[in-house]
Prior knowledge:
Elements: E1 2-7, H1 14-23, E2 27-30, H2 31-41, H3 44-53, H4 66-75, H5 77-104, E3 109-113, E4 128-133, H6 136-147, H7 151-159, H8 164-167, E5 173-176, H9 181-196
Parallel strand pairs: 1-3, 1-4, 2-3, 4-5
Helix pairs in contact: 2-5, 3-5, 4-5, 6-7
Amino acid sequence: MIKIGLTGGICSGKSTISLMLKEAGFKIIDADIIAKEVLAKYPEILLKVRAEFGDNFFDWRGEFRRREFGNHIFRFPRERKKYEEIIIPYIKKDIISNFEELEKEGEVLVVLDGATLIENNFHEKMDMIVLVWVDENSQIQRIKFRDKLTQNEAINRINAQLSLDKKKEYANFIIDNSGNIMKTKEQILDLIDLLNLYK
C-alpha cells in the first residue's frame, strides 16, 4: 500500500483539500477525527489528563472542557507537550490500525490527513508528503475569523506547530492555497492526476 501524508497548518485549507481528494475517490484517514475518537474510546486518556492537569478542565458533570483546555495548552508549550505525550501514542496506534484495515480491504493508496504529521515524526512512515501552504498573515486572519480568537491567541495556535515554511523541506508536493480557489483547484487536479498513476 502507498501511504500519502497530507499536512499543513491550522487554517491552511488542508481540510478542504482533504475533502476534494475524498470526493475524487481516495480513501482518507483523518487524524483530527481519530484524535477526538480516542478520548471516548480510551477512557484512561482523560483519567491521565485529570491526574496531570487537575480538575479545572472538567465541569461539574465530569465532562472535559475541550475549548478551555485547548486555549491553555496552546498558551503554554510545556503543557501542550505533556498532553501530547499522553494522547499521541493512542492516535498513532489507531492510525496504524486504520491503515492495516484498509490494506486488508485491498486499498492500494491511502491518504493520511494530519496537521502534525511532521512534528510527530509520522512523515517517516509515508511514501509521499503533500503540504498545503499559505502565507502566515492569511493564516492568522483565517483563524481569528473561524475561531473568534484574538491576534495573540491565533499566533499561539500557529506557533504550536512547525512553521509551514519549515514543512516545505519535507514536502514532495506543495499546494499554495494563498490565492483564489480556482488556482487551488488547478493544483488539486495536478495532484489527483499524480496520485492516480499509483492506483
